[in-house]
Amino acid sequence: MISRRRLVLASAIVAGGVAIGYRAMPRGNLPRKLPDSIPLAPGEVALTPYVVVDARGIAIIAPRAEMGQGIHTTLAALVAEELDVELAAVRVIHGPASEHYANEFMFGKRKFPDRVHRKPAQATIAQSSIRDAFVKMRRAGAAARHVLIQAAAARLGLEPDTLRTASGVVIAPDGQRLSYESLAEQASTSPVPQDLPLKPTAEWRLLGRSLPRVDMVAKCTGTAEYAMDVALPNLVFAAVKRNPSIDAPVVSMDASKAERMRGVERVVPIRDGAIVIATNTWYAMQAAERIQFEWASADYPDHIDGHREELQRALDREPYFVALDRGNVEAAPGPSAVTITGAYSVPYLSHATMEPLNATAWYREGRLDVWAGNQAPTLARRVAMRASGLERDQVHVHTTYMGGGFGRRFELYEVKEAVIAAMAMKGRPVRLTYSREEDLTHDAYRPMAAAEFRASVRDGVPVMLDLKLSSASLYGSGRRREHIVLNEPDKGTPRKDTHITMGATEQPYRISNHRVRAYLAERPLPVGWWRSVGESQNAYFMESIVDEIAVASGSDPLEMRLSMLEHEPSRAVLNAVAELSDWGRKLPRGHGRGLAYCLSSDAATAQIVEVRADREGVRLVRAWAAVDVGIALDPGNLESQVQGSLMFGLSAAIFGEVNVADGAVQERNFDTYPLLQMHHAPHVDVAILESGEEIFGAGECATATAAPALGNAIFAATGRRIRDLPFRRHVRFV
Amino acid sequence: MASLVVNGQTHTFDVDPDMPLLWVLRDELGIVGPKFGCGIGICGACTVHLSGQPVRACKLRVRDVHGAVTTIEGLSNAETLHAVQRAWIDEQVAQCGYCQPGQIMTAVALLAETPTPTDDAIDRAFRGNLCRCGTYPRIRKAIRTAAVALASKSRLGEA
Questions:
Q1: What is the ipTM, given to two decimal places?
Q2: Contact A404 B73 (CB under 8 A)
Q3: Which of A397, A422, A459, A591 is deepest in the core (most CB within 10 A)?
């Protein structure tokens, strides 16, 4: 059970002196050795870091978190396309934690930005997986196919160029067929050339088509394995209770009552709470609630009002940095100009993954295995090393399917705690599960944020926008980052944390006088990366403001945006969504439509939401979205991602808010942190556009545009401009 | 010792009778298709059938379980999938998939009761089944697909 997934990264990969297929980087940058190679099990052969063959057949390594976005299917298709295998005939697995699976695009186009980030990690973030994989995983498939052909040629005594491949076999001119499996051992010793040609898109069999997801059957039969489902012998179950004042320590505790409860095996104190280990998760959760604690208080304001004040205080200080300063926003806009001003705000948000945080760990005979749904396996390994005191080659991270991620599965507290529990239970595996309440009250939240703006429009043309954005730094958010991003507890806040302005500065809008300034709010709740990150608030601010400008000048919101944009993909998505929705048609009484646009991690996205408002409240009627992904690898899955990320954005915009009282987050379960449900969900039409050369991901873009599209629709239907989220604070939703 | 019939098999175990059915299934019996989501019966990830009716296993104390339990594992065998599962696969519903065992169990129960549900009936039946990935439009479509498949099956007298 444990060893069956021990594979990959043998010395075979470096047979030619270089490792092939894992980085689309210049030759000189390729590492000469694989410092964290993982030994192959007997009978296993690695043709590249992405292609492993054993007695059970071919496995493709898809080393990104499968948390719903279908990435395993598309990544495997990249390899399978060039390798010439059928997707249904191979296994697709996540594979081990390794720096060799680093995501070169985790920071977007800017490969190595200054300051905090040291180097890319194996991370699934910011719809970047496909940008990172698009070339290198096809190269891996081509490299594996190449060495298989070489092996077949040697065996048959034929020239390699007389051979062809199809569906996992090499075929000789006389029709003789050699399976890849039969050639793998020999192939693994062949040198691999660097620059193998890739198939032209016209010859693609798998890419560009809607493929059945490789995880679909398992997910519809209850057999997909999440970390919470891993079956192990003599498993014990743990729950955690942490200080409601997040990250503040325990002053004292009395666990005597809990220790006597049925099923309880042990109580293990940790810095900010305690772990209860029992024979059943329910016993552990019950007992965790019976421990008497005296808690230290939080280092952030103990009431949400204090957090609002911090945002406001930041706006009154000097800017943290100036993100954009074009023209002169102080110049007089001219006598015919109309100037408007306003302020916007958004609350903290939880990630609220359907699967609560959990991890399973097992320490025996000097070896630690950790099963965790996580978005950063190499960081998870580092966390496990620290918590156990073990060396890197003793720690093995198994990344399972995830019941949602959305940026939540970077923080890895559950990994640390499961490892602490496993070390305490030496020899027995421990599964640690957060209750929903512990999960929602110990998140790294989407930061609260506020904006102030001043804008001028003259003859229908926006001539000035001065935007102030106030929010907390994701990096400067207390000690939680110490083992994850910074690896240095006292590093503090970076010179610029551009998450604060993300989504407001990269937009290709032409506004001749345009300034965006960032203001740093202090003492926040722990904050983190939440699906679409800074875009989640800044697209709401920007696109609501653009709508306000259009209204102030009596312009059509679509026409005005088009007049401000030269960027072709952006114009294309706006035109596409307008066409899809028949923008401008006369709507029934009480209906209103809102438009929003965002260049979201370089993917141009436009969205329209239609609502109906009546005496009962506001109802979502329908939504449309158009996204330019550059090159569409799987239209069906892209549709599903755009629909889903749109729903995610609507859910947050309508319902999402996290409040604090007495130092504790008040929204503890789905009764007080409600989510979008079936009866709210609108029908969503999606257009996927392909502008050509470059490829973009699409797992987040429609999240960014959902709130402004909805807010603009509510304005169109009711005449009410809502400048504060969630919308349900201001209107009733039915 | 207590016992339960789950997916046609009798299991015995010894637990606090107040333990919710979900934790008996998952931690005592190793039946992990039903998922833990909220623990208060409002997200639906733990939905199983008790005598054919959908129930929230995270809220139902095992002492109150009188009848046969069916989980997602009991809907199909290695050879055949339930029509609802086939529809889910045909429409490629699942994303993260964590809520889907609950969604599917709710759909099976709905279609058993109401072979051709209206949109309102679907909304009502799924009020307690949250999906964080926003698969609702595809769930709705898959229910329609499954309804058609089940209707033709019953016309053929196979149901």
A1: 0.97
A2: no
A3: A422
